[in-house]
Amino acid sequence: MKNTLMIIVAAISLLTSCATSKSSETTKPTAYIQTNAQCGDCKERIEGVLNFEKGIIYSNMDLDTKIVEVKYNANKTSLEKIRNTIAAIGYNADDVKAVKSAQSALPGCCQPGGHD
């Protein structure tokens, strides 16, 4: 009887921990955001800002596709805020256009048409 009770307690404990880890994963989604970044400096600039934003767990930009992969805590930030942060740096982020003044402040090679 004692062994059966211990097995039941262990099973409940295991199920509870699985449910908890699943729910925490759903609050940490991964987004893929298309940008118009062009070079390694753009990559460093975007990742440098995003990786210090509240709620951002991880960001990495692929220079070939110009897509930024962002893992974030949905309880602390949103996809909209992340896109707006990228736009505020001076780059397009999906359908959010770059803030013109920030884009103008980028080095010439990082502005649209700078690497053509």
Automatic annotation (TrEMBL):
PROSITE patterns per record: HMA_2, PROKAR_LIPOPROTEIN
Is the keyword Signal assigned to this protein? yes
The superkingdom of the source organism is: Bacteria
Per UniProt, residues of the HMA domain are 28-94
Task: State if Signal is listed as a keyword.
Answer: yes
Q: Which SUPFAM superfamilies match?
A: HMA, heavy metal-associated domain
InterPro entries with a match to the protein in the record: HMA_dom (IPR006121), HMA_dom_sf (IPR036163)
Identify the Pfam families for this entry.
HMA
**CDD domains the record matches:** HMA
First and last residue of the signal peptide? 1-21
Query: What does the UniProt keyword field contain?
Result: Signal
List the molecular function annotations (GO) for this entry. metal ion binding
Q: What is this protein called?
A: Heavy metal transporter
Name its species: Brumimicrobium oceani
